[in-house]
Write a structure and sequence with these properties.
The protein is of the alpha+beta class. The protein has a single domain (3-118), classed as 3-Layer(aba) Sandwich (Trna Endonuclease, Chain: A, domain 1), CATH 3.40.1350.10. It is 33% helix and 39% strand. It has helices at 3-26, 75-90; strands spanning 30-38, 41-49, 52-61, 98-107, 110-118. A five-stranded mixed beta sheet has the order 1-2-3-4-5, with helices on both faces. β2 and β3 (52-61) form a beta hairpin. The longest helix is centred in the N-terminal third of the chain and has 24 residues, at 3-26. It is globular and about 45 Å long.
Length: 121
């Protein structure tokens, strides 16, 4: 992938993240963090609704040629998200909160929402 294609891919990813954030806000969530970094690991969105803190991974694709975007959240990606989420939680003083992992995908521009998409092993 050349530099221009990488830049376009990053820009498209940021657009998907903005659309995902708008969807979540429209559904009663409050944004806590965007693109939160834990070393080389990143959580796209961290949102809260009531007492639930949600770690959100956003993926997009224009076609299923290389599989559904949700399939890109493989075991390695899930493990990295869990590690980053643990660091986020440990750095804050959450009281009586629930936590979960959601995935939001965009396939050919259409948003698909997967609440509680996976559990910590």
């Amino acid at each position: 992938m050349n530099r221009d294609n990488i830049k376009k891919s990053v820009e498209k990813g940021r657009q998907y993240e903005k659309l995902a954030e708008k969807f979540l806000i429209d559904n009663g969530y409050k944004t806590l963090e965007k693109n939160w970094q834990a070393g080389h690991k990143e959580i796209d969105l961290i949102v809260q609704k009531d007492k639930t803190i949600v770690f959100v991974e956003v993926k997009g694709s224009v076609s299923k040629q290389y599989g559904h975007p949700s399939e890109k959240v493989d075991k390695r990606k899930r493990d990295n998200l869990i590690i980053a989420a643990e660091q986020y939680i440990n750095a804050r003083d959450f009281q009586d909160n629930d936590f979960r992992f959601d995935i939001i995908t965009f396939l050919d521009g259409k948003l698909e929402y997967y609440p509680d998409a996976f559990q910590c092993d």
